[in-house]
Structures are given as C-alpha cells and as structure tokens.
Amino acid sequence: MLFQKRVDRAMKHSKEQAIKKQQNLHLQEEQPLVELMEKGDLPALIISALLVFFPIAMLIVIVMCVLGMLPAFL
Question: Is the full-model pTM beyond 0.90?
Fold first, then answer.
C-alpha cells in the first residue's frame, strides 16, 4: 500500500481512542446518580415535568368531559 505507515498510525490512534472511551464509560457507570446531580436538580426536574405533563393531562380531561356531556345535548 502506498501510505501503509499512515494507515497503521491512524488505526493505532483509533484503537487508543476507543479504549479511552470505553474506560471513561466504565468509570461513569460506577458513579451513582446522586453524585452526578447538583443541589437543586431534583426539584427542577419535578417542576419541569409538571410544567410539561400537567397541561397535556388537563387538556385530555377537558376533552373527555366535553365528550361525556355531548350525548346530553343531542
């Protein structure tokens, strides 16, 4: 091959990067989630979930109520 040394060097570099990435993933899996979270993260997650899901749930409840009352008007 014309550039065999460059190809070998690139393959070696790629293998080293894959090994480093695998080691970093292994180290991250060992840390519990509580250590990764900061002080106000849990309340922020709960509030954001309520802000996202509460309006959708209310819309569904309103639609169900309107559909339930619909036969009374017909």
Answer: no
